[in-house]
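Mods, move this if it's the wrong board.
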Amino acid sequence: PAAPKSPPKITPRARTLTEIIFQTWCQAGFLPDSFWGETPRTTMLAIWGARHRQVADFRNIVTGAWLGGMLSQCPPAQYPQLEKLIGAEEKPAEAKKIDPKEASANARAWGEWLRAGAQKGR
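Not the wrong board. Structure tokens:
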């Protein structure tokens, strides 16, 4: 009898960006079917939001553990500062100051664009 054939070797292929983002979407806890109805912008905003939620959950868990340790019988001097355990909280970036003339010009351009779209749809 002939020797059984070995299974074919599977060579890994490079994943596409869509596959990577889809995997991240699923790992963040979102339903796989909901991914395909999202725009790239809303997908990234949802993933960033999930990341911020995970960071907040981590901070809460570490804070609880730290407080539990502080309330135990160990002397407080032996514990590191809470900020060292959870890291400094990220401060939001300051909004860019915009020139009033530029803001007015942008508003006019948006108005013209919206009017042109409304007239086109008639």
